[in-house]
Amino acid sequence: VSATFTLAVGLVVGWGGTIMYNGMKSGDPDGMGAGLKQLFTDSQESEVANVLSKRATSTDPVRASFEFYTVLPDVERVVSIEETTPQTQPSQETVKQSVKNQDSNGYYMLQVGSYSKQSMAEKMKANLAITGFEPAIQRVSIQGQGQLFRVQVGPFATMGQLGKANRKLEQMGFKTLWLKVSKRP
């Protein structure tokens, strides 16, 4: 194929395309390319109609936007380290009262990790089990993030037990999140 022939074909195709494009944009119903405009408009409108009809006839049940009350069996709150260090020495009566009420107040947990893949959570659980802890995996559904798998150690009845376990985990290189889980009234 010669260069002259290729150039001639390119010019003819370019000239024809220009005429079709100008006819399509002109708005003249008898102009060359007017049929293309109608073809493109019809196909776009039918595509939009198909998408809208699929959305309208969807049989998926409507999910509740809040799952907080059904997901968490108890109420959790993050405990900061500052809250755990007593400012003064508690009296003997205070200690007896706290021991008496520890079951009614709830318990403490250490969260070692939170993963989007269950396999990663299982690996962390196995690593912790080897070191002597009894970890558990809690599956939580969080809106916008999907399923998360929390690896937690505990429960601990007192802050002292929690602190001791936390120090051991820190020595092994784990960073934890302290949680206080309160039983519902």
UniProtKB/TrEMBL annotation:
InterPro entries: Cell_div_SPOR-domain, SPOR-like_dom, SPOR-like_sf. SUPFAM superfamilies: Sporulation related repeat. Residues 102-182 form the SPOR domain. Signal peptide: none annotated. GO terms for cellular component: cell division site; cell septum. Transmembrane segments: none annotated. PROSITE patterns: SPOR (PS51724). GO terms for molecular function: peptidoglycan binding. GO terms for biological process: cytokinetic process. PANTHER family: CELL DIVISION PROTEIN DEDD, CELL DIVISION PROTEIN DEDD-RELATED. This is SPOR domain-containing protein.
